[in-house]
Amino acid sequence: MKYIKNFMFVVFYILVVAVSSLIIVKSFHIGAKKVYAYDYNTTAESMAIIEVNSGRIIASKDGNKQLPMASLTKIITAIVAIENNENLDKKLEIPKEAHGIEGSSIYLRTGEHLSMRELLFGLMLRSGNDAATAIAILTSGSVDEFIEKCNEFCKNIGLENTNLVTPSGLHDDNHYTTAEDLAKVTAYALKNDIFAEIVSTRFKRIDDELGKAGFRNLKNKNKFLAMMEGANGVKTGYTKKAGRCFVGSVYREEDNMQLACVLLNCGPMFDECRNLCAQALDEYKLYDLTNISEIKVKIGNDEISGKINDKLLYPLTKQEYEKLEIQIKPTIDNIGSIKIDEKIGELLIFVDKNLILCDNIYSLENHDNNANDSPIEKIIKNF
């Protein structure tokens, strides 16, 4: 009986150890998964996070699903207007078509005068649908022509799943985008200083020449600006069809990393944006991959010193950075006569065998492999 009890105890002990081991192993894999940033939990129907400098989508949930985006449309309206109005401070007369537009409004009056810059503040801080209509007409002459310009702009910057019907985002079945498209256009827009200034502004006073006070006080609807250090944009949106939509952006000064987080049809959009951005900032760092002291391009038996002209900024996890592989590929077969700034190769950067960046390499020096030849040798080589 004693032996039986001892045997049962040993069996029980082995089972406990085995189960504990399984739990430990499971926990290890979960931890590793989080390190590699695979899990970005959100209740949003669609989500995407982009690093603005590089354009890398670092997280996505149904990011290419076509959905309505409500007033997030105004991100596109704003950047198109900024790029197509040379003088943003010239006073313009508000057309009658912009008066009495349904939905959110800054209560424009026919015949009053505001600058395009003031209208842009009304558009992005208060989500004025009337401001969107005024901007469209004053930029292109009509809403239809402005929408045509917006759709052309979207195609030109590589948005493949976006189509606009209105400048405001009022619902139309043919008016749609995706989280990843919105992330890309937001990254594009945030590189414009005027756009970046407007969307980071919490309060703004603009003219109201026909009103009693003579001015309008605009308070930004974007609560995210006060929720997180470095928060600096971008836009809220809502319709019954689209649900609550939001694009938030945050900047980290330490490494100049800027994130934009897109949430489509997400109830707790501000809180989830903060949590998602915090996770991304914790897991990623923006690395300057141009800090290569010397680039040598091997062409045949010779080596030529080279350089790259652009900064190669890219967000990477610590594990990704440790697995970086750099390759230099020549793009010419022989040296011949090479001039300074002539393309001589390509710099390829891989993570886990996946190409993440590619840039041209240009010569740092003039090179003529015939320079030391005698006249007779030059004649023979050129023959």
What does this structure look like?
- The N and C termini lie far apart (104 Å).
- The strands form six sheets. This protein has a five-stranded antiparallel beta sheet, sandwiched between helices. Strands 11-12-17-16-14 form a five-stranded antiparallel beta sheet. The chain has a two-stranded antiparallel ribbon with strand order 3-4.
- The radius of gyration is 28 Å and the shape is elongated.
- The longest helix has 34 residues, at 2-35.
- It is α+β, with helices and mostly antiparallel strands and 383 residues long.
- Mean pLDDT is 87; it is low at 9-38.
- The protein contains ten helices and 18 strands.
- A hairpin with a 4-residue loop joins β8 (243-252) and β9 (257-264).
Given helix and strand content, the structural type is: alpha+beta
CATH architecture title of the largest domain = 3-Layer(aba) Sandwich
CATH superfamily of the largest domain: DD-peptidase/beta-lactamase superfamily
The run of helices and strands is HEEHEEHHHHHEEEEEHEEEEHEEEEEH
Mean pLDDT: 87
The largest β sheet comes out as:
5 strands, antiparallel
Low-confidence runs: 9-38
Shape summary: elongated
Range of helix content: 25-40%
Estimate the strand proportion: 25-35%
Fill in the CATH topology of the largest domain: Beta-lactamase
